[in-house]
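Action item from last meeting closed. Structure (251 res):
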């Protein structure tokens, strides 16, 4: 094993500890409040990410130990449920296309009580900024998970000239450095991308704290259990039925 692996572990650990410390100091309380309020009002948590940040939305919506009233907004929905040709999914065209937002909102199950949780390391691509702007225009609260260092170092790509961090009601720093990589190989080649790890930690932190908040007041948090244990499918289906037509689960 190369010496870079322990160094990467150190990089990851220090960033995760910084996120946990921020949460312990109350830095995540506003985001948690917004999510709990939305669920109390019958809303769901709309999670959105493009590129590798799609993994963040998958951590939020539809996994064991996760909240059931969650929906994974995905650009592929404009192909699966809209009018776009499958060829639109090639490359990064949709990710950078602000016009895709109109169709995405048209084909997605969105309710006025919903809260949006949007992840993007750069926070500047057209669809990311467009979804945040549209959500705000419709009166939704928006929580952003982004790299403050990276987003402040690049120019916005949306016609509005805005970054995700400039639109959101709450901004959570994923602690990734500019360019995402934490290590350097000879020739100054970056390796050891970190944002997926820190963002997944943030997703689970939010899930844990929202669930704890619900549990502390005497209610049972609506959480998935693994479909691969006895009774899992029955438990999950019964709770999913409470949000029929509000959440979308795909393979």
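Sequence:
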């Amino acid at each position: 094993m190369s010496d870079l692996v322990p160094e990467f572990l150190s990089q990851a650990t220090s960033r995760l500890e910084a996120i946990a410390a921020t949460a312990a100091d109350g830095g995540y309380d506003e985001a948690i409040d917004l999510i709990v309020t939305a669920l109390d009002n019958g809303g769901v948590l709309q999670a959105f990410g493009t590129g590798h940040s799609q993994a963040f939305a998958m951590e939020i919506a539809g996994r064991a130990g996760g909240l059931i009233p969650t929906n994974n907004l995905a650009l592929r929905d404009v192909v699966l449920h809209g009018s776009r040709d499958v060829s639109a999914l090639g490359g990064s065209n949709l990710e950078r296309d602000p016009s895709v937002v109109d169709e995405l909102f048209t084909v997605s199950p969105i309710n006025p009580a919903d809260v949006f949780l949007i992840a993007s390391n750069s926070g500047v691509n057209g669809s990311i900024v467009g979804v945040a702007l549209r959500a705000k225009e419709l009166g939704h609260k928006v929580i952003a998970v982004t790299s403050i260092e990276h987003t402040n170092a690049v120019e916005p790509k949306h016609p509005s000239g805005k970054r995700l961090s400039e639109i959101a009601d709450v901004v959570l720093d994923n602690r990734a450095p500019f360019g995402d990589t934490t290590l350097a190989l000879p020739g100054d080649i970056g390796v050891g991308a970190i944002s997926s790890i820190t963002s997944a930690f943030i997703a689970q932190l939010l899930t844990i704290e929202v669930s704890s908040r619900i549990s502390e007041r005497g209610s049972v948090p609506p959480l998935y259990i693994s479909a691969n244990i006895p009774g899992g499918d029955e438990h999950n289906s019964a709770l999913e039925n409470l949000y029929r037509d509000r959440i979308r689960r795909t393979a």
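Note appended to the action item: DSSP finds ten helices and seven strands in the chain.
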